[in-house]
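Thread title: Can someone regenerate the structure for this chain?

I was given the following input by a collaborator and told the matching structure tokens would be attached. They weren't. Posting the sequence so someone can regenerate them.
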Amino acid sequence: GAGVDHETATKRALAEAGHRSWQDLSQAHRREIETAIDRLPAPNTPLDARLIEITQAVIASELFDTAVKNGWDMTALFGVAAVAPDVRLGEQGLVPQLVFSRLSVRQIELLTTDHAIIEYRTRSKFRFDRFRPALEQAVLWWECDALIGGAVWGALN
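Best answer:
Regenerated them for you:
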């Protein structure tokens, strides 16, 4: 709206947030997530451990940089419902969707500004839309009392 090109607007937005580049912003998010995960209690089940493992794999990958560059917020990537996080699928971000799915994920085939394509081991594909109204109410999985507080953490399996 300020009459500038996209690249200039992006640089200004990053600078206003205190970041020099998308890589700098990605690194800042990585550090925040790693710190949050380090503070969690030890996982009680294989599914709990998988949530941590998949989150760590995603933040270590180019996929995470691509998501940040494409404007994905952390809730779209790591959000869950504050209540019944394992059941309320509409409030699950991309990573919890991968972890809680009953199907084995083969890969994230594509990630764009508005969706991701998940390929399952069966070779079937699922489109995960970034912009979903229910995600507005989601919380980051490592901040979810229903998950980490014990109601689900250790009970899912």
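The first helix runs from residue 6 to 16.
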